């Protein structure tokens, strides 16, 4: 009877997955279970397989973990258009209220303010969207040409964008646009590398 009871327990254990390899408390004590609740000693699964030491996502062969300029171009253009529309709307509201301050609150005044908001919003959205489109196009072309992605591409794309955008103003306009683009993208590159520069200076001081 006793042997039959043992065989019956073994059969039920095998049916429900408890008849495999078991681990004692001593075996489980040395397994790192960060962020996980303590496992039952009757679990028939080696806990080391539950610990994730690799990345959560699987990337295609040769793919980068960060998005390239082409992927970021859509976000850049859309973000600049929305930012320009919001800024233009606020500026149009300011101008509309200023121009109609001598008018009483009525339908004509509301229509005039609304027209000013719409006009300024579209103007600024078109301006910033065009700049973002030129900047993204130059950035992608320079990246594909050089075969590298660094801050030099950012500065070159910004400079060329300013020059092309102000090309209708003659040589002086081109120079001013190039200087403006160079300054803005240079400050952006400096901001992105500020922590790295601080770390390098700290190591040199030691």
Helices and strands, with pairings:
Blueprint: H1 2-15, H2 25-29, H3 69-99, H4 107-146, H5 151-165, H6 170-192, H7 194-205
Helix pairs in contact: 3-4, 4-5, 5-6
Describe the structure.
- With 206 residues, the protein is mainly alpha-helical.
- Helix content is 68%, strand content 0%.
- It contains 7 helices and no strands.
- α4 crosses α5 and α5 runs antiparallel to α6 (170-192).
- The N and C termini lie far apart (79 Å).
- Mean pLDDT is 77; it is low at 1-20.
Helical percentage = 55-70%
Number of strands: 0
Content-based structural category: mainly alpha
DSSP helical segment count: 7
Mean pLDDT: 77
CA-based shape: extended
Helix and strand succession? HHHHHHH
Distance between the termini: 79 Å
Q: Which consecutive residue ranges, at least 5 long each, have pLDDT under 50?
A: 1-20
The biggest sheet, with number of strands, parallel, antiparallel or mixed sense and barrel status, is: none
Radius of gyration, rounded? 32 Å
Strand content: under 5%
Features:
206 residues; mainly alpha; disordered N terminus
Q: What is the compact description of this entry?
A:
This protein is an all-alpha fold.
